[in-house]
Design brief:
single chain, 4-stranded antiparallel sheet, 9 helices, 34% helix
């Protein structure tokens, strides 16, 4: 192998330009958590906006392991991972980017008529269209189209061609889940304002923290019907805190991490969250 094409060398170059990277193993997937961090026993990353490993020096937590620190990339645990890596992954949202993953020729044809031109990178079956700006990730926004940005990783396939455009509203709109026409119209849920003449009571840190912790515990204690439990828990959290602006990305990350510790995929978490918001009319 040409030494300049070694995944670790590519990773160091990307990190130097501010792109958080991580090694991907066979199957083009992240390395699993180490025994200490299994099932997020270590608590995982508290804030999705700062990609990087937890205190564990191993390559843990998938997209959240992505880093720009050369000392981490060259550390012994990561060296071992690079020797087994087949390619380099990166966290688009951590670099302020969004990747529109077009999986086939039909998806590419759609993008050429529906989206503004931007930097493109050829993939095995299609193209990555890369925009400047981060947003919520979501898979299967339409046939053959995934969005990879925050809380997601993408495979690095080269610098691509073309000038990178700003993230357009047309791409942001793709992540908004439309209610199914076969389902009843979403039922609005009125959230009591609580004491204080309509002032939001949830901005008391202890009140919100207690609610999030109870939700995380409810998910982790689920012994069956995990998918349904996750959805009901998301629904309960949003019905209490979804209308007042108290929830942050860090709170959502904790809920998603709890769900993934029970075997839920990130895509299922995102869909359950979006469905709960739709049900509540948020």
């Amino acid at each position: 192998m040409n030494e300049s094409l070694h995944p670790q060398h590519i990773a160091l170059s990307l990190a130097a330009s501010g792109v958080p990277v991580l090694p991907l193993r066979r199957g083009k997937v992240p390395f699993g958590n180490c025994p200490t961090c299994a099932d997020n026993a270590c608590g995982g990353r508290p804030n999705m906006k700062t990609p990087g490993p937890c205190r564990c020096p191993d390559v843990c937590h998938a997209w959240a392991a992505a880093t720009t620190d050369p000392a981490v990339i060259l550390s012994p645990p990561w060296e071992a991972a690079w020797r087994r890596a087949v390619c380099v992954g990166y966290h688009p949202g951590g670099a302020g980017l969004t990747v529109v993953d077009l999986d086939d020729v039909d998806a590419i044809a759609w993008a050429r008529t529906a989206l503004p031109a931007t930097r493109t990178v050829a993939t095995t079956r299609g193209e990555h269209w890369i925009y400047l700006g981060a947003m919520t990730s979501r898979n299967a926004v339409r046939p053959g189209v995934d969005i990879k940005s925050t809380m997601a990783y993408a495979r690095y396939l080269g610098p691509g061609t073309g000038t990178m455009a700003d993230l357009p509203d047309a791409v942001r709109a793709l992540a908004v889940k439309e209610p199914s026409p076969t389902r009843p119209a979403p039922q609005a849920v009125t959230v009591p304002a609580g004491p204080g003449r309509g002032e939001c009571p949830h901005r008391t840190p202890a009140y919100l923290e207690r609610g999030i912790e109870m939700a995380v515990q409810r998910i982790r204690e689920a012994s069956s019907a995990v998918h349904a439990t996750v959805y009901r828990t998301f629904l309960a959290v949003l019905s209490r805190h979804g209308r007042c602006g108290c929830l942050t990305d860090a709170h959502v990350f904790r809920l998603f991490a709890a769900a993934q510790s029970k075997g839920e995929r990130a895509r299922h978490c995102a869909d359950a969250w979006a469905n709960a918001r739709t049900t509540l009319g948020l």
